[in-house]
Design goal:
The protein contains 7 helices and 6 strands, in the order E-H-E-E-H-E-E-E-H-H-H-H-H. By secondary structure, it is an alpha+beta fold.
Length: 217
Amino acid sequence: MAIEIDTLAKNLTSFAEGLGELLGQNCEIALFNVEDSKHKLVYLVNSQVTDRKYDEDMNQHELEALDRAKAQSGYSIFSYTDKDGRRLKTAIFILKDKDSENTSIMIISFDITDFLLAKKTLEFLCLIDGKAENDINANNDNDYKNVGFLMEKIISDVLESYGKPVSYLSKEDKVKIVSMLKDKGVFLIKGSVEYIADKLCVSRYTIYNYLEEIRLE
């Protein structure tokens, strides 16, 4: 996106401030300048969304999206789960001057965790005899030939049925989920511990500790 960078700089911070006020506390706007191939954070609105600090670079998800934006049309929209288990929907924009000598980057991160929880509640209210009206759980039998797909599907179904976003789960909740997955034989599948740890936002050693607690009980 080619623009007059000096003209933009005069209005960019007020735009970020207004956007943050419009979208509320769930929306963070971060402005970076690119200097000597480094990203310098120069303005930040609603920093509590990602707990971003001024001396920190973009996170790994943002850096990967930035590479995609450079290869595409100057922007990228993506989502990821942060270290606290909250789901973020994010847009990254590259702003260059006409000579491509100066570059600014805007990152808009929206915490959609509460909306996903509301979505689950609404889906539950729409169930008829335990099934969604459009039978959204219909599956292609051929997909189940893939063990990895089966593992991911079982884990996804258990997390969905639990009815809470990962960021809302207590340790007791996570132990119960691990116990449910153990009963379903998921831990017999190679790579399951690492995958579950990632989904629950804990380390694989924590999963092993949960399994030991379950065994002792």
